[in-house]
Design brief:
The chain is an alpha/beta fold. It folds into 2 domains: about 30 residues, no CATH class; about 180 residues, Alpha/Beta hydrolase fold, catalytic domain (Rossmann fold), CATH 3.40.50.1820. About 30% of the residues lie in helices and about 15% in strands. Strands 2-1-3-4-5 form a 5-stranded parallel sheet, with helices on both faces. Strand 4, helix 6 and strand 5 form a beta-alpha-beta unit. Helix 2 crosses helix 7 and helix 3 crosses helix 4. The N terminus is likely disordered.
Length: about 220
């Protein structure tokens, strides 16, 4: 092709479309994403929408509106979110790994830890609030716990037994909001199962975002 290799033609096309960033004297490489000002590490509830889930998505969107021009990213905790409750320990391990990675690579980023329902139990493990009936508590190391600027959980099972993160966590009690919708049987003595699915429409995602914005 007139002395020009196919590889160089392909690389040049990628640079032209913005897919790669060229470095002088080298083959273009993918541009590294900058560290966000704030990252929300969120565990969805049982069989919730893939990714952040409905509550997590609403919470992140509301937080973006509260923090002006600062950048906010969301990290979806990787775990089954199934009826195998013991697998929530996998979520705690993944969230722990993400926090360690962010503390190392983006130390100035404000981390927000959050979860809904079973995802709130994932946060309980990290916050050193053992979920009743398990011994899966895996509290964050103090070396990285300080990178977590705020915690927000919804429909937390431990709250039903008088152990909300905002009171029972030795790591995060002073920077946590633990929200339970009136009547929610998962986090209270209420008997209204519909309340457990009402956190977004009831405005509690916005309430949590207002709280967190004051800490980040």
């Amino acid at each position: 092709m007139c002395g020009v290799s196919l590889r160089r033609v392909f690389a040049a096309a990628l640079v032209a479309t913005g897919a790669l960033t060229a470095l002088p004297g080298s083959i273009p490489t993918a541009a590294a994403a900058p560290c966000p000002d704030i990252e929300v590490i969120f565990a969805r509830g049982t069989h919730d929408t893939a990714g952040l889930g409905q509550v997590g998505t609403a919470f992140v969107d509301a937080l973006r509106e509260q923090v002006g021009d600062r950048t906010v990213t969301g990290y979806a905790v990787d775990y089954p979110a199934s009826y195998d409750f013991l697998a929530s320990g996998d979520g705690a391990a993944d969230a722990n790994s993400r926090i360690i990675t962010m503390a190392k690579t983006c130390p100035a980023t404000k981390l927000v830890l959050g979860g809904y329902s079973q995802g709130a139990a994932v946060v309980d493990f990290l916050a050193d609030v053992p979920v009743l009936g398990t011994n899966l508590a895996t509290p964050l190391s103090p070396a990285v716990a300080d990178n977590v600027a705020a915690v927000a959980v919804f429909g937390n099972p431990s709250t039903k037994f008088g152990k909300p993160i905002s009171a029972a966590s030795p790591l995060f009690a002073d920077k946590a909001i633990d929200l339970c919708k009136d009547g929610d049987p998962i986090c209270s003595s209420g008997r209204n199962p519909f309340a457990h699915n009402d956190y977004v429409s009831a405005g509690l995602a916005i309430e949590a975002a207002n709280f967190v914005a004051g800490l980040v």
